[in-house]
Amino acid sequence: xxxxxxxxxxxxxxxxxxxxxxxxxxxxxxxxxxxxxxxxxxxxxxxxxxxxxxxxxxxxxxxxxxxxxxxxxxxxxxxxxxxxxxxxxxxxxxxxxxxxxxxxxxxxxxxxxxxxxxxxxxxxxxxxxxxxxxxxxxxxxxxxxxxxxxxxxxxxxxxxxxxxxxxx
Length: 168
Known about the structure:
Helices cover 48% and strands 16% of the residues.
């Protein structure tokens, strides 16, 4: 069996050496021929006809950051909360929301479409209920006096026990 392993090993080594020599010679040919020969590309001639068009103004599409900058310059406020794409009268626009609650709609080309002030929030707190000119306080004081009377009753019971002991 060792002769069989030796034969397989020799065959694989010879195969690897042949492949290595072929790769090295191919690399040598490519590297020497690339400096001598320059590729020639065919030239193509085409005729382009320019048609007169209306004076087209370039369309500028703002990014979210640019829309936020336009809205901040419009309001004079730089405390932004969010910028998002939103429809405005069936057109695409940027909705820029400020921390103060102001909302500014900016078109994709940088025009201010609308500005909304924050809606005021009214909080109504009911007035405290009064019960006959402060009877709530008198109830609390009467509860305290009842507890004190109860405590005094307990103390009396203990004193009575001691007095009985003294009498004996």
